[in-house]
Structure formats: C-alpha cells, structure tokens
Amino acid sequence: MSEHDLVIRNGTVVTGSDTTVCDIVVSGGRIEDIRRNAPTRKQEIDASGKYVLPGGVDAHVHLDEPPFFGVKLADDYQSGTISAACGGTTTILSFVQQEGDQSLREAVNVTHEKARDEAIIDYAFHIMLTNIDEQMIGQDLPALIQDGYTSYKVYMCYDGMVLNDGDILKVLETSREYGATVLVHAENHHCIHHLANKLEQSGRTDIENFHDMSPMPVEREATHRAITLSELTDTPITIVHVSAREAMDQIRWGQDRGLKVYGETCPHFLEFTEDDVKRPGWEGAKYLCTPPLREGANREFLWRGIANGVFQIFSSDHAPFIFESKEGKKVGGETPHFRHVPPGMPGVELRAPYLFSEGVMKERISINKFVEVTATNPAKIYGLYPRKGTIAIGSDADIVVWDPDREVKVTRDMLHDNMDYTPYEGKILSGWPETVISRGEVVVSGGKVCAIPGRGTHLDRTPQDVNPAGGRVA
Amino acid sequence: MSEHDLVIRNGTVVTGSDTTVCDIVVSGGRIEDIRRNAPTRKQEIDASGKYVLPGGVDAHVHLDEPPFFGVKLADDYQSGTISAACGGTTTILSFVQQEGDQSLREAVNVTHEKARDEAIIDYAFHIMLTNIDEQMIGQDLPALIQDGYTSYKVYMCYDGMVLNDGDILKVLETSREYGATVLVHAENHHCIHHLANKLEQSGRTDIENFHDMSPMPVEREATHRAITLSELTDTPITIVHVSAREAMDQIRWGQDRGLKVYGETCPHFLEFTEDDVKRPGWEGAKYLCTPPLREGANREFLWRGIANGVFQIFSSDHAPFIFESKEGKKVGGETPHFRHVPPGMPGVELRAPYLFSEGVMKERISINKFVEVTATNPAKIYGLYPRKGTIAIGSDADIVVWDPDREVKVTRDMLHDNMDYTPYEGKILSGWPETVISRGEVVVSGGKVCAIPGRGTHLDRTPQDVNPAGGRVA
Amino acid sequence: MSEHDLVIRNGTVVTGSDTTVCDIVVSGGRIEDIRRNAPTRKQEIDASGKYVLPGGVDAHVHLDEPPFFGVKLADDYQSGTISAACGGTTTILSFVQQEGDQSLREAVNVTHEKARDEAIIDYAFHIMLTNIDEQMIGQDLPALIQDGYTSYKVYMCYDGMVLNDGDILKVLETSREYGATVLVHAENHHCIHHLANKLEQSGRTDIENFHDMSPMPVEREATHRAITLSELTDTPITIVHVSAREAMDQIRWGQDRGLKVYGETCPHFLEFTEDDVKRPGWEGAKYLCTPPLREGANREFLWRGIANGVFQIFSSDHAPFIFESKEGKKVGGETPHFRHVPPGMPGVELRAPYLFSEGVMKERISINKFVEVTATNPAKIYGLYPRKGTIAIGSDADIVVWDPDREVKVTRDMLHDNMDYTPYEGKILSGWPETVISRGEVVVSGGKVCAIPGRGTHLDRTPQDVNPAGGRVA
Amino acid sequence: MSEHDLVIRNGTVVTGSDTTVCDIVVSGGRIEDIRRNAPTRKQEIDASGKYVLPGGVDAHVHLDEPPFFGVKLADDYQSGTISAACGGTTTILSFVQQEGDQSLREAVNVTHEKARDEAIIDYAFHIMLTNIDEQMIGQDLPALIQDGYTSYKVYMCYDGMVLNDGDILKVLETSREYGATVLVHAENHHCIHHLANKLEQSGRTDIENFHDMSPMPVEREATHRAITLSELTDTPITIVHVSAREAMDQIRWGQDRGLKVYGETCPHFLEFTEDDVKRPGWEGAKYLCTPPLREGANREFLWRGIANGVFQIFSSDHAPFIFESKEGKKVGGETPHFRHVPPGMPGVELRAPYLFSEGVMKERISINKFVEVTATNPAKIYGLYPRKGTIAIGSDADIVVWDPDREVKVTRDMLHDNMDYTPYEGKILSGWPETVISRGEVVVSGGKVCAIPGRGTHLDRTPQDVNPAGGRVA
Q: Which of D36, D369, D473 sits opposite C470 (nearest CB)?
C-alpha cells in the first residue's frame, strides 16, 4: 500500500452515464475498487454530500507558445497546469507550434522541454500544422503519428498559419491512414483579410469594430467547408471553439447526415457577447477572441447544443495575454487597434466551475452531461481514454471532489494563472472543486496547491481508430 | 454470503459511457463490488473475452392483454418473460389495459394477478389511457401516479382507444403535476379511417394494401402534433415505435428546439420493409404491424437516428399474434383482409441480439450506445434507474454475459415465446447472450432457462421529476 | 363606342411579370387595346408618372355574415365594397355562412340577396363548410361546385364550425373530384379550448392574455396537419391568414416537397404585434384577431415570405366589429374578457395601400410582386382569372391608377367602412389609389365614390383544374 | 409601315404571368400593339392554336472561345446563333475570355469581331474574370461596367481561371459599386485537384470515374461559399449550372434567409445521369460536363426547384466539343482519360424545346413559368429587360410561334450546330418552335433559316441596380 493509496468515501460518483453513491478505492495511482464500506486506507477523503467526478480534461489550452501578435502568452506549463488543477482539471491538451525553421519533430521536442519540469498535472499535445510540404505529409507526419502524436490542429485563417483546402485534405487523408484526428479552426482567411482591409480603409480601427472583421458567415462558411473536407475523406474532425448558432447548425447538419463531425464550444461564448468588446476604452480588449464574441441571443442555442449532443467537447481555449500587453499594442494612437491587439481570453481555471454552476446547478444540463463534455468525451476523442476521463477500474485516479454547495465570487486574485485580469470578475459561481486528485495524489485541497511542478507527465498515445462504430468515439 | 453470491470475472464490462475489463461481485442480488482480482465467491462466472452488459430493459412488450382484433396475444407473463430473458432482457415494461367496465385501478390489479406467479424477470407496467373523464383525470390518475404507476400510454388512433388532443393535453398536464411520463402511439386516427374506407370502397382489401391505410404522412403528422402537445404543456413524451425517416425528422426537429421529446424505434423497422407485407398469400400477414413497415431506404436513417441520439430507446414492441390466428381472420374469402388481421410482430427475444449483431458487430453503433438504448435510457426514462439499466454499485445484479463470437441462425424452434413463426427465420446473428442474471440469480445459462416462474417481481416506482436538467433524463 | 369607353394614357402599366409605359384602351368594360399613342376616346385619363395596376382582388373579406360572438359585422355589401374600392380593390371574395338550419344552397341564395343591390364592385363567394354529412358531401357540395361555387373554407377550430380531420379529408376529396379549392383556417381547436380553460381557471381573463389561448405552436401544428391532409388527398389548399414564422416555415417545407400548398398573409400581421393587444384597458380589443398577433420579430420573416414566394396571396381578412360592440362585451366586470370580445380587425380599404407603401415604396418587394399577391394570384387561385386580376386583352377593365407620390395620413374619418376605429390611425402611407375603375367605369376618383350600389355583380365561375402544371396555378 | 411590319394573329400569347388569346402587331421591329382583330399588315402570321412566346434568352452559351483542354469549340457565332434561333432562342449571352496577354478590353473587342458579321440573333457578353489585380479591379472593371458590360463570370475552380475568395470579394464589391452582376461556377478547386490526383494515383483514369473527381459535396461546398461571399458584400450572384439537389438546397437556404442568390440549371441535368458517363468505351465522353452529371434521383428535385422558384434561369450551357475531338484526346491508351477529355455538352438548340416538352407538356411547370425561366428572368437579371424577354409594348419583337402539337424525334442531322453528335439522339419532344422572329424579322420558319449572318447585333446595356426591391430583379 503506497502512501498515496486512498479511499474517497460516500460521494456521489458520476460518469458520463451513471450516478452512484459509493466509495472509490485508489491504489498505485489507479482506481482499484468501486464499492461501499471500503476498508480503511492510509488516506481517507469524506465525500458525503459531494460529487466525485472524473478529473477534467481540457482539450484546448495554449501555454508557452511562440509569441502571437508579438506577445508572449502569460502562462507557462507551471502556472497553466496549476491554474487548471485548481479548477478541477487534471489533464490538458496543449499545443506544439513550430518556431523559426524548426522541424515538427524539433518543435515537439522543444515543447516537451517546456513542460517536463513544470507541469503539475498530465498533458498531451496537439501539433499545429501550419506548413505543408511533401516531406511533411509523406514522412514527418506519419512518423509522429506512429510515435503517438495523434491529434493535429489546422487553421483556415491567420497569415503564416492558414492551410488551403488541398493541404487540409492531405492532412486528413494522412491522419486517416495512420490513425490521428484533426482539430479545425474554422474561419475563412480571405474573408477576414478582405473585411479587415475594408475596416482599415474606412478608419474603423478601434477594437469595437473587431466583430466586423469576422462576422458569423465567415465562421459558418469555414465550418461548412471543413465538414465537406471531412466528408470527402471520410475522416473525423473536431470544429473547435464554435461561437454561435449558425456554425453550430452546420455541425448538426453534418451529424444528422451521418458525418463524423465533433463540435467544441467554450465558456466565454456562453457568458459574453459582442457588446463586451464594445466596453469603453481598453476594457473591450479583455474580451477579444477568435472567433469573436457574438450576439447574446446565440447563447441559448449553444446551451441547447451542449444538452442535445451537438457539442461533444467543452474546452477553455485558454489563451492568456495579459491586459498590460494588450494595452501595450498601441498603434497610431490611444485607442486599441483591432488588428494589433492579440485575441485570446484566459479561462482554464474557470472552465469546469463555470459549466457546473451555469449548466448543472441551473438545470440546463445533467451532471452526467457535464462529465461527458468536460472529461470523458475529450479523453475518448483524443486517445486518452480509458486512462483519463472517467472513473473506472484501472483508470488513472484523476478525481475531483466537487462541493455543489460552495458559492464562489470570482476575482482576479483567487485565480492561479499569470494573468492580470479575469473576464469573469465578480461572477458568482455555485459549486467548486474542493479536492483535486491526479493519479491518486491530492494536488489541490481546499484551494491550496500541494503538488510539485514536474510531477505531471506526458501521456503517450497510440494511433487511433478513426472509423469507430457509428462514426463516433463519443 | 447467500447462495446466489457470485463473481463475474474478467469480462469487458460496459455501461452507457464506459468499457472496462474487470470483475463484478454480486451479493444479495445487488452489485457489491467492481474491481479486479476479486476474492472467490460461491459461484464464479468466467467472462474472459465476453461482454458483461446490464440486463436489457425492454420498454414496450405486450403480454396477456385483452383480445385485440378479437385475438388473444400468444404470450402470457410466463412465456413472455422467459422469451425476454433468453434474449438478454431482465426487465420488461408491459401494459395495463382496461377490459369491459373495469376501473383503471381494477385493471392494474388484474394485471398484477396475471404477472405475479408467472414472470421470471422483473416488470413494471405502462397503463393505457383509453377513456378520459373528469373522475379519471382528477382522482384516479393522480392516485395511481402517487402509488408509483408513473408511465402512461395514449393512442392517437384505434377505435375505442384513441384520445383527442384535448384529452391528451389533460393527461400531459396531470402527468406533469404528479410526476409521470407519457408514451404516444402517433398515427392520425381520422386519416387511417378515411384511407381504410377508401381502400375498402375500391376493393383493395388484401393486406398487400395495408401500408396505404397509414402511409408515412399519417405517422409524421401525428408525431408533429404530439410534439406540439408536449410543447404546450412543457411535459416530456416518448414517441414510440417510430417507423421511418419523416417521423424521426420531426422528433429531431423538436429536440433541436429544446423540447422534451424522446424517440423509440424497434428491430422490425430496421430489418423489414413494406415489400415484406406484400409477400404472397398469407405470408405477408406475418409482417403486419402499426405503424406499418416502410420503404427500405428509411432503414439507413433509423440507424443514423440511433447512432446520433434521436432515439433514446430501442424496444421490441413485442405483439405476438400466432400466424394461425392471423390466418383465422378470413373475412369474405381466402385472401387476408387488411382490416381484420391483427397487426403486431413478435420480437422480445431477438431485440437485443438483433441490435448487437446488426448494430455493434457491423459497427453502426458503439457498444456503449447499445447499452444506452437497450437498458440505461429506458430505465432512466421510466423511473427504474439506478435499480435497473446499468452496472453500478447497489444496482440490481441484472447482468448479461454476452458472447460476441457466437453465431446464431434464427429459427422458430430456438425461440421461447408461444408463437408459431418468427419473422427473422433464417437470419444469421453474430453474438448471443450466454448467461443471463437477474438480481444475482442465473436465469438463463447457455440457452437453458433455470428460473422458476413467479420469481420476477413488480418494480415499485415513485413519482418522477418531469423537468430534469436539460429537459432530459437521457 | 359606349359612354364608358376610355383611354388611360402614358401610365406605367404593371402585371405580375412586366412593367411598360403605354396606353390602355377600354371598350365595353373590357381591355381592348394595349399600345402607345392610342386614338382619343370619350373619356381620357392621364396616368403620366402614375402606376396603372390591375384592380385589387381581396380574397378574404367578411361582410354581412351571421353574428359572431353575438355581434353583427359592421359592414354590409354596400359599405364593404365602397371601402374596398376606395382602397384600390375591384373584386372581393366574401363568405357564405349557414345560419340556423339553412341548407348550404339556401345560405348561398341568402348571401346573393345581401349582395345584389348593394355591391359597387364585383364579388364571388367562398362557402364555409361547418357541418359535414353524407348528403352534403355526396349531393350538395358536388352540385354547388358544378354550379360554379368553387372555393370552400374549413375551420380547424371554433365551436360550431370546426371540422375534424376526417371531414376535412372528405371535403378535399370531393373538391378534387369536382373541381374546387379549399381555404383552411389553421388553429388546433382542442388546444385552444384547453388553454382557454386554463386561463379562465387561473383568472387570467383580461384580453391581454388573448395570445396565450392560441400561441404559435397551436397554429403551426394545425398548419402542418392541414398540409398533411392536402398531401394525402393530393388536393391544393390555401392556408389563410398566416400570422408568423413557424406556420410559414411549415408552408415552405410543404412547397419544397412539391406539395400544393398556397399561403396567405394579411397586413395586420406585418404591422402589429402581441404588444398591441396589451394596450391598456379596452384599447387592446382593437387588435384582437385570430390567429392572434405575434412577437414583432416575426414580421421580417413574413416580408421575406412575400418576397420569396411562400405567400401567394395578400388579403385583408376584413372582419369589422365596431369598437363599441367590442366594449359592449363586458362580462363579469370592466375589463375585457378574452373569450367574449369578438376577434377581427377591419382592413379592406388599407390592404393594398399598406402593401404598396410598406412593401413597394420601402423596396421590400417589387411592384410586380405587389400585383401578383394583391390581384393576379388570388384571381388565378380562386378561378377568376383571366377575367380579373390582370391587365390583358379581353380582361375586365378593372384598373387602378396609383399615385406613388401621394402621401396619406390614415385617420378613421377618411375611411369608408362602417367602423368606429382603424387600427392604423395616424400611420403615414406613401402612394394612394387615385382612380379606381371597375369594368371600365370609374367607381372612385380622387377619393370620391362615383358608383351606384348594385352595379357590382356576382362572378360566375366554373369547376377548376385542381391539378395544374407544377401543382400550382400561381 | 416597313416591310417587316407584321401581325401575329389569334395566338395564345404568354408572358411570365399572363396567358391571353390576342394579336400582336409589330412595327419597326418592336411590338406596337396588343389587341384583337388587328388591321391587316404586310405580313400576317396565323397563330391560332399555337403559343406566341417571347423569344428565348439563353444566358449561358459558349461560342468561339479560346481553346479549352486544347480543343476549339465547334460553334462560332454563325452556327451557334443559327442553332439557337432554330430552337426558339432570339438572344444569347455568350462569353468573353482573355487569351494570351490580352487586356480585358482587348478581349472584349476581339469577341465583338468574332460576333459582328456572324450572328443572326442579338447577343450580349458575360466577361470571364480569371486574373485579378489592382489595375483590373480599380480601373478596367469599373470602366467596362460603365460602358455597359454589366455581367461577369468567376470560377471557383480550373487551373488558370480559378479566383480565390479574396479576389471574388473584390469583384463582388466592385460590381456592387458600379452596377454589375456576377455569375459563379461553383466547384471547389482544391478538392477537384486532390480527388483527381488520387484517381490518377490509383490508376482510375477512365472517364467512367469522372464523377469522382467532383462529387456532390465539392459543388455544394462551393455553392455555400459563394452565397457567403455574396452575403458579406450584399451583392447579388447567380449560381450557374446547378447539377443536383444538395447545391440547390444551399441556394434555397440562402433565398429563405433573404439573400440575393439566383440559381440556374440546365437541360442535361434534368435528362441525364452519372450512368450516362459510364456508357461503354468513348460513348461516355459525350456526357462529360462540369459539374458532372449526378444520380438520377436528383432530377425530380431539380424539377421542383424550377416549379418552386429556386431556379430563376434555365440555360443551355452550350459547350460544343465535337465527339471526334473528344476521341482525339487519347492519352496513354485507348480508353478516354477523365482529365484530358474536354467537358461540355451541346444544347443551345434543344434548351427551350426540351423544357417545353418535358416541363410544360408533362405538366411539371406552367407555360408562364416556362417563359419566366427561359426568357423573362434572364433578360431581367442580365440587364436586357424590357427590350428582351417579354411581349410588351415597345419591346423588341422577338417572338416565337410555338406549335404544341408537333412531335419531333431528335436526331443529329436535324440540328444546326457544328457538332457531330447530340446527347439527345432519339428523344421524342412534344411541341416545337414553328416561326422565330427577331426584331420583327422572321429568322426561322418551319425549320428553314431565313436570316443573313451579321443581322444580329450586340445589345448595349447600362449599369444595373444591384439592390432591387426584395433583393431580387426576378
């Protein structure tokens, strides 16, 4: 019996489908036994009246990447994983991005370096593919997939990152052949360029115009196109950070046709609207993200999309640019220029608490659906299941004891990222992760971090079955 | 340790969301422990290489009801539950129907009598409401709901059974107020009457014309109407035995609008088509059911509907009229008259094996989806969860050890119902339930029934939450 | 050359498809010649800078019917047709309704009596079918159709008027067989009853609750059902007075499936909203109609539906109950009871001016679409074309010279109906019918009525082709 | 009274909205008078029992363009316009395409040269934009629009022709600003490339694989994208040669949202299917076109789209490559290589007769709809109305006397193009254009061409209103 062996007693244990009051016995970092009246272990956690949930899997976290818009992300793997853990997340999927003339493999290695001694929870990488050539498609990508790097992100916009449809088709086919899955940032590059140029030509450069650079049809179109590329290659994709109804309707349309399309949405799209970007002065810069925030009426539809299964994944898209650095991007004057302020909002710590409070406690979704979209589905879709994402015999003991009765008022100071603001300042949330356990080790307890940086490990994966039953792994 | 205490060892245990290789320890008829390397129990079942699944919950089974079209159902609670058990089903929901001038309560009591000494597995009743008056809505129905009879079936067609929309609204409101749920047989009564009369007037009375009495729009319309009645009262309904795409599209439409609509479909709609009803002579009578079998192209859409979550429930709609009795309905000649042959097909035994073979083994759906629609969802929707429908600590040990490698050729003789035919004659199925356990007791083993009639018990329920999170219990 | 022979010179002549500057020569009440530089006639009308349009055909006008809610309509055939003519309408379709134990034929004859000496413009009748029996379906209806009464209205609601689906199917089949078309008032009777009872039981009887007696789903459902009945019998129908988006979407859905469904909407649904019914005190009673006024956001969709061809017909649904009579319906107190105030709004005079001003002048629709929905399509659909509804050789010279530059502020006093209020009080309209000509006779000129009651005649029709090319006559 | 003055007597004159028996008096090449019993003119045509229709406007005709796939089109302006006229078409819109390093203006001038002495009917040009730069967008295009070249075609595929989305947005904005309209060939370039490469790599190079180079999703995607580009710039577009249901559904979706999207389809998509391309040997090459022919079930939906107003325009997309030249493209063997055979089918002569026979005579569409989509709408959308496209006072006397009773069996020999095959060989058509009149001059009579090449003239246009009422000119 190791020192970390423990029993979590009398909690309401929840999986994607079930809810049971029982004990969870953890041994050697794994779940050993599920029963009642378990014999005593070294460490005992009383979870009576609490939920016992699978640790969250945040499938969309930006940490310590090369500068974007000339600005470094505020969080590295230490602050980022601590913040994640404090919000009940025990696994993150972050990104590998090539810098300079690095090969993909070099970029992977560099990212391993960044994470190795810093992370307090486990992690895996999505690799950004921003540059396609024959060597890459024919050699590098297959080799990486075979080594267990089985998820890739492609961009349909952004200078220097955008892939054209032909390149995306190649990525999809190679993914299918070797066993990887593809995340798509769906906004139409040419449209954004065109509309941004028009805004500049007409002098509408204040960020309050940010939305008009990529209105709804720009995202909807790219979503439809991405689904088509997936359809033509019969390869699953995930449309990430879906902002609003029209893009969501395209995903449902694809799903109803039997296509293998997953959808991901994020907390900020449920909470904020385009009006927040129009807050006076620099304040609006705090709410800049891509795709941009939309009309408020969309939020009801996104909630339905979570409840109804349009969205399989609920991620943070944590992209922490400190406000000061946003302010620093003063171009040609005192007002923030929509094209120079780095887009992105922090959120890794509040992702699960937000969904628990606004979703479960307000009865928009069941607690099982909460587990499904915050943990089980992302683990399944990205090849981490059953090691992560559920409470089952043999799975890693990544477990959160969640207190549904605790009420928390969000302030910048209570959060653990390196940011100087939170967009959720002042928001009251119902329910909070009380104890967070990673591989049997309590990493957060009562808000106190009790894990040593570097304890988190990279999660090796193996090539995936990209043609699962029903076209779906989740 | 009781004599029934047992361990099911090394199986692949499946729930609606998870798949784990482990042992299941059963004690006192309940699931006591889930782990690996469980200590020895009196009874040991080796499930290596097998699936260990929750016992099936068949939510739509007709047994020992008053005569329909003047014909008695072939199965009573003994043959019906034996047949169910042999097909891996450990719970059925059958029907209470008033006969003569019985009160609802009397009809319930009579049905209890019919089941008590006969059933080998557990059961609960849906009560058919075919006659609405003030006493019934104001007194009888509330009292029955409070006594735990929490599911009711209404018909939008059939002389003597049809309720008008006003009556259905009353049923829905009372159900909402006291905590019951409502199943709807959705076909438009007036349309059927009209079309049947026309067929008769034109001499098209052979059952090969059966479909034209209730073509797709007749079911689609009633489905839309039922959804509207549910919407107006904000009360969940289940549209039962959905036959084809157009009705399914209405259900999806309602679900996408956030309405509380569940869908059920059945094996015969996945396997057979309107052409089967046109088999020569009396043969077609074997394939008569309502709603009728449809064009074959619909089947692909129904499969998608199961995979995509349009359908929450997969039931047999077992309605066993022996062929001889169908043949007996010779009216005005030697050809079968579409209006006199009782509609209904047997299927309680093959329901789960069919879906396993055609769905899971042919990779149309995942094994988790199989469990969800054959067991977990019906248990949740009809108030039997968590006692039934899953494998979880404290749940009844209703478990099936399923051999995915066994291939079975369906013949009439291998089945355990009282029928003289099976529509699936000659069909090869992959996978078969090897051992069926009810409350810890092996009731079927290797095809041999080893349970005594009367061991099955009625499942008491309590009033349900009809406004669950996300509008859905499943 | 008769005294009425005339030339309308240099106007912009508009049909459903064309726009041409030319002269119209009228002789013997008919259009004789279309050209430029026509020789002089006895009467000359200079239409330079004006539109020359087909006289309007208002396909939905209630005049001199039996009391409804115990209240007589304010308009008879004299005031009604004068009001219509002043608004640029030269043909109305009004209703025959049985009273007491009249036969249908007697009711037709009585209605002829009412109209004969009163009308100043031409008219035909829709016959309401509120009572179906074998004699009626087998004898009376065929005979009336063969006599040229080729349009019938059925109600899916209202005590004493509602037909069940079986009766409607019979009406549709007989219409198809003999050559008539059917208008449908689509609201679900049972739902209205149920919801009205609930409102009463909860004391919410003020008319501000009127909308909750028949919310959108009640109309949408009946619309879907009516389309299904039409589909099953392959018989065209017109869904009249469509109030809002959801019902319209059902019609479009049917049309896209190739079904023979026409749609009609009305000015009040484009202008007013459910908020108008909530005006304080008795004021709201002025805005009562069925289906009720809806949320304002619907109006944009109705406009699209006109522009896009979902709606073929734009009618007034003129149902004039004087405000005083509405006020007279004080039941149990000083506030208006939603169940006792007769629903209906006047509008026959403003129908075309409203659509011209808000549609054509505001560029929501083309002038050709205006002609199509106010004149050509209703004439075609109800068997009056080519005698009415267009400007073509041989057609009746029913012509309106429309001044697009005249601006009119609507007041009660300027209108010619017998009402004591107009819901459009104070509304500014752009464009106005300057000269209105019926069969070559100027009946209104510069706002002055110059026709003698009784000059209007009944328009004999003949059985229609109910299976036109493309399933559509318009 | 000129020698060409004539009267067409007693025909059934049809416009987009009306049908009238009357005489048409033509003077000076224009329609002078519409009446009955017209005074005698020099030339009299008895049209009793015949239809008198506006001469057809074929908005999509390829003549005498630079070689495509290295092959010259078989038809120049002489054979092409003769063939058109013989099929009842009196106006064509053909294409200007740059060759070598021609400027757009030079290409226009060269095309004028090609047409001037050859055409027997009138014509205007769509200008292909295959190369976008600042000079072109800023100077050349505005100048051309101001000179009356007001319709442009862009390609979303084909090497050397494809524009990216940014370029298309620029074209749309310039068109909007100066008053032109844009035709879009909607297939995704990158997808075609990718799929074609795959076919080649797998050795599937026979043209029977042609469809797999651009399956339905490739066209559907581009259609959705084109609609989005139109939406973002609020500029009307026409999606040309729509092949099948999924693309059509996108157009309807856009129209239902109030977007300014027109649709065009063509006879070959109504008649042929992907199976025709699989005819043995070289035979399939006769049926090659882009987008490719689709599954037969689509045809019913296209017919509905014409009847219901999804399609405004019915064009031939006449692209005549003689069979011998297709056969000439033998690459690497005796079987036709899908990438080397020029795609395109002839059809300018049969376009209107085909639609008359299969649409009007088979009662799929009304005769008014026939006129609308073959003449009035294309004239309106491309700025030729009211000079062309209708029968109205002052319009060019482009008129066809159409005999509905004549039955014609199509053979290669009866046609007047320069082709060596017709895909319609052996097809029986009901109805045929008997007399074809252009500007008052009989150019075809009883199948005999009686016009001198060079009599056809270019139709000058002026900048268009791109924001018409209801967003639509048709």
A: D369
